[in-house]
From TrEMBL:
Keywords: ATP-binding, Nucleotide-binding
Taxonomic placement: Bacteria, Pseudomonadati, Pseudomonadota, Alphaproteobacteria, Sphingomonadales
CDD domains: USP-like
UniProt family annotation: Belongs to the universal stress protein A family.
Molecular functions (GO terms): ATP binding
Chain segments annotated as coiled-coil in the UniProt record: none
Listed name of the protein: UspA domain-containing protein
Matching Gene3D superfamilies: HUPs
All residue ranges annotated as the UspA domain in the record: 1-129, 138-281
Amino acid sequence: MKHILVATDFSARSDRASRRAVLTARTIEAELTLVHVVDDDQPNYLMERQRSAATELLGQMTTTLAEVDKVASRMIVTTGDAFDGILRTAAEINPDLIIVGPHRRQFLDTFVGTTAERTIQRSRHPILMANAVPSGSYNRILLATDLTDASRSAVTSADRLGILTGVDIVALHLFDAPAIGMMKRAMEVPDAINHYVSVEEKRARSEFMSFLAGCGLQGARLKLSPMQGSVAAAIRACADEQEVDLIVLGTSQRTGIERFLLGSIAQAVLLDAAQDVLVVPPRQPDETSL
């Protein structure tokens, strides 16, 4: 049976994560582990009081999950920084998926360094950020791909989780057409620019179809567009236009400024997307399963 770890701080935002976890558990036949992290930067008596209260609340939640939702679950209360507690718990139980609630929208510019961002940045497990109010199983999913191993890993992980089964899949690829800007600056005639884009799109379509076939997704609807401006904005625009419920992204294992820039795409999507977002980290060399 698959295993989902859902983080809760008992806020309205984490209620979205909990509800999405229940819906997902039903869809992919998974059990849940609810984790709450008590801040350890406070006096011991306050920590113990909060631990006791959290244990009682989680106990009520697990009872409701069993009796009302018919979903098996267990609970864990730990201490530390929120993101560290979530990741330590994930390392201990090795879940197939971690689900967290959305960041605080009124503080968009402070997303970097928040629990959500730090958890996603360091996680070795797929993480789903439940942005939308859960109302049912996913019906349409956007796979944002760049045809790299990171994208292949994201598609494979989503498929193994079971969330791609029985849904409408839209696959997006923003292909590289580097000469567009130069041709425009050189005041090339529109027909020449359009011909160049057409040639590059034909090449990209062939590579894209081969990539999807290798992932077993020949039935996905293809969306191709030349890469211009913000990649994250293009992904969000496609998600809105196609009315998808979930965006699936892969992240690359890089270092230094290259890793920061690549990570900023996923970060920017997470920052403003109205839809749920599933972020899949690269597979580790010693991993044999999710």
